């Protein structure tokens, strides 16, 4: 459930902050006051596309944050936990939009991509806009609405997964068949390249060893000279070497320890130094004796290293990666040489996947046909209560023209409607007028929302174009939806607003040089005034107020859940 939303520097909003409760909340206000700004802001924080022009004039950036109570929402909690974004049953979203159009998103304080915000938002909020009926004409939207109403996500996922696996197997088989023309040439090339690499017969360790030996041979003269100079300094028979100096000092200090015990530690350290110097002399002499200057070996090493680097350039890799390249080439050669067996195996796999797919798609078609009957009846009933007494709604399910597997099954789904008595049903876009389409859209949205599991439903002036008793029915349906979830409704109809458990008023305030929007929670008296304004226009009479009071009383809205208010500022 949406608990709190804070908006700064968006459109004509300088800053608004509102806390929301459960049940049904109505947003009302004068035309042009910015009633839909809150909905737009919520869409942005849930990942909608944004441009710099949405930022309030004179501001450098816009910022929207929203917090949700996700207790009991296991799917949302799991989604957050998988990404290390969980935060004790809460979900805090934030979006910053800069003047240049760039934006940053955050989930529970951690940076997040817009795709992540959209994925999470789809589990938290379902927004129904006043122009949503336009999307109803698209077949993809019609299929999605029917499937959402049917509630068989596991079967849909199975069909989609099988289609993806079928595509992959089909592409692999096509690649195998198309590559036959180049098969012989590729085999010859692979064998030639393998012969080059096999001739070296080297492992990663061998290559590293050769490189190390080459470095040593290339610098053998300098290494030998340095070793010999070191031996002369450490243990020369002529002059004062390090060994003779340490030993002579050790003898002298050793004699003096009889007279002063404080020299014992010094004598001990000199003894250790004498041992270390002698060990260094032995190691350095052994190194100098083993070190050879071999020009022929150096030449062989240089040729070998040159061959390694030439092959590495040819295969666009490092010399140490050549053994891996050899393994890959050998695997590819074996795969091509066994192409006939692989092709037969792929063909069998493809046939089995297609059979599994068609079995699952057939089950999906059966489910859809069952769902279509119930869906059609409920939409028809909703249409008839919304002023289309003779309206009929049906869902046509027919086989797709293309017999190849598709990602959503093998069905072509189309919404059919008859707006007047005695007329046959026809495709939605060919029959309904703008007003009729708006009512049908509202019927579908209400019925679809009733079957959804999204905790927060937002209706942005979906009641446009209706009034009177139909408006009251719409309000009743929205209030019924709010029985077990949160419903936020932007409306201009008093019949709908009166049904809400709480009401927010949106005002546009103009100063000498600026215009800004304010949102505030209305108490019972203020609700009566606002409903009277919506009923009576500019001049509000006592009878208009009595009518508004009566509407609230009949709706029982004043005894509903009160809105929680933290702050609302201009």
Short account of what is shown:
The protein has 570 residues and is of the alpha/beta class. The chain is 54% helix and 17% strand.
Description of the structure:
- With 570 residues, this protein is an alpha/beta fold.
- The protein has a domain at 183-337.
- It has 19 helices and 15 strands.
- It has a six-stranded antiparallel β-sheet, with helices on one face. A six-stranded mixed β-sheet has the order 8-12-13-3-14-15. A three-stranded antiparallel β-sheet has the order 9-10-11.
- The two termini are 25 Å apart.
- Mean pLDDT is 82; it is low at 557-570.
Strand content: 15-25%
- Radius of gyration of CA atoms, rounded to a whole number: 40 Å
Shape: elongated
N/C terminus separation: 25 Å
What topology, given as strand order, has the largest sheet? 2-1-4-5-6-7
Largest beta sheet, briefly? 6 strands, antiparallel
Helix content: 40-55%
Which regions have little confidence, pLDDT < 50, spanning 5+ residues? 557-570
The assigned structural class equals alpha/beta
Number of extended strands: 15
Question: What's the number of helices?
Answer: 19
Mean pLDDT over all positions: 82
